TrEMBL record:
It comes from Kitasatospora cathayae. The keyword Ribosomal protein does not apply. This is ATP-binding protein. It comes from the Bacteria. PANTHER family: ANTI-SIGMA-F FACTOR RSBW (PTHR35526:SF3), ANTI-SIGMA-F FACTOR RSBW-RELATED (PTHR35526).
Amino acid sequence: MALMVAREVPTSSTMAVPHGPASVGVARRRLRRDLGDRQIPEPVIDDAVLILSELLSNACRYARPLGPLPALGRGARAEVVDQVLVGVPSGTHPAPGGREREDGTIEPDGGVLVRWQMHADGVLTLEVTDGGAATRPLPASPSLTSRGGRGLGIVDQLASDWGVRDAPGEVTVWAALPARARHARRTGGDARSA
């Protein structure tokens, strides 16, 4: 008699999107579809979509785009989603899209990388990588009448953890949340606020 053990394999999705507000809706819809296909509970999908919206909106509003959209791998293809050209990775070609030069070649536009990954332990991570900004992403304390400044506060409330990673020429803001069970939210006393 053979004993079989099933184990969930971590899965991820990465997309390169143009640096601009239209990309936010495209990324949200793709995340919602992808997580729904993986049978993630709807409340978790709603939280993940809101977190991704806040991170990507901040990247498009405050940060510089990455240089030309990075190479996404062999077999990379472009999808037009809601009239926005989106690079979808799979193996070492750059994502299509950009401006045509006088010599007929394409100069890729700058963009933003969006990634989500479901880990074997049931934690979903969301990442947005851009070209950085003059200031580091930090939650603000807006007044009651302010029109903005609440995005990272929302991320802080919904995510079990979040942070910022720096690399030469790029900044990644990430957030993690439990995708299989609704764990208790973080409580005060977090040392990350420094």
